[in-house]
Sequence to fold (221 residues):
Amino acid sequence: MTLSAVIPTLNAARVLAPTLSAMGAADEIVVADGGSSDGTLDIARRLAATALTAPRGRGVQLAAGAQAARGDWLLFLHADTVLAAGWRKEAQTFMTDASNAERAGVFRFALDDQAPEARRLEKAVAWRTRVLGLPYGDQGLLMARPFYEGLGGFRPLPLMEDVDLVRRIGRSRIVPLATEAVTSAERWRRDGWHRRSARNLACLSLYFAGVPPRLIQRLYG
Fold:
């Protein structure tokens, strides 16, 4: 039973190396790049990842990476998210449990910042994952290839591609895992903790209200 990690990138040279280094326990790493100009692909190849170029857009890139990957199981992960040590052991336990053939595992959201706002956001995401079945894309998504393909995979959306897939998976089939997925807090530090969180919530609300993702992208930036 093999596991392929699929990572979409766009000018991710500053953050990609730690992410790939932590993924050494994967059987295969596929980096699907949307046209980087900063050496992202060089870093990917240097760290033994399979690098491919796809049209820009996270949904399109994730779909392309999944198609190129050869593993029985797929782990979708953002370029600025580092899985804590021991992640493969927990992933292996999840994958070998037959009851998870049509479920998706998500890791525990964490931020690389000591600010109180970071801890509050982590608690909010844990609640959102547990109660609403809506994990952040930063938490990773672990699922069997047949399940992923049966759901239709990632759609070519410029934004909300993770929410779109998670809704098709369904709340009852989302399984929280204990391992931390430590994500860069740079976006929150740059934009402001409250402002960034409010913008994320606004985007999610607009999506559920039926606003097309291409229009939401203008707000998200």
